[in-house]
Amino acid sequence: MSSTSPAIIVGLGGVTNGGKTTMCKSLEHLFSSTKSNFRVKSMHLDNYFRPNDDPHHIHLDEFHHHDWDCLEALDTEKFVHDIELNRYQCDLLLIEGFLIFNISNAKELYDLIYYFDLPYEECQRRRSSRNYDPPDPKNYFEKHVWQVHLKTKQEVLEYFNKKKLVIVNTKEESFDKIQERIVNDIEIILKEKQIQ
């Protein structure tokens, strides 16, 4: 592919602990190892969390805890800036994160859009098995994280209602099946770009 044409940008967004990071790393490995002269980069929204003492944070008095599940907790300007830089430095740019589709300046950049979703019980089970720094306070998932997820998911569904939004459920669908679908979708766009 030409170095002057922008990368294919694949968005892997959605619910916390939905399998986004695992899928992103697997796709990066797969496309890096099987495509000759094919440059792949990945970006992870978790790398853009603001430091704990950043004044942009919203503090939740009920939990004596910052709200780590809102856009204010993230340096979204740097995130969008890095997308713009990276999209001309590779052929395939994989972007994953729980709020990537809620960042207004990035919504139009994705060629493929996958929303990872889980039922409440499975999401809670996976979340409780993870260690966070700082740790989740008691009832933070039930009273805050899940409520924010429902709200931000609704925003995504409303915004992308007429666009190619694919919802995947990593509890109901196997990892391999989901990956196979994403790989096929990427390869279709790759062929279209090569024809042009």
UniProtKB/TrEMBL annotation:
Q: Which InterPro entries match?
A: P-loop_NTPase
Q: Enumerate the Gene3D superfamilies for this protein.
A: P-loop containing nucleotide triphosphate hydrolases
What Pfam families does the record point to?
AAA_18 (PF13238)
Matching entries from PANTHER family are given as: URIDINE KINASE (PTHR10285)
Q: What is this protein called?
A: Uncharacterized protein
Q: Which organism is it from?
A: Adineta steineri
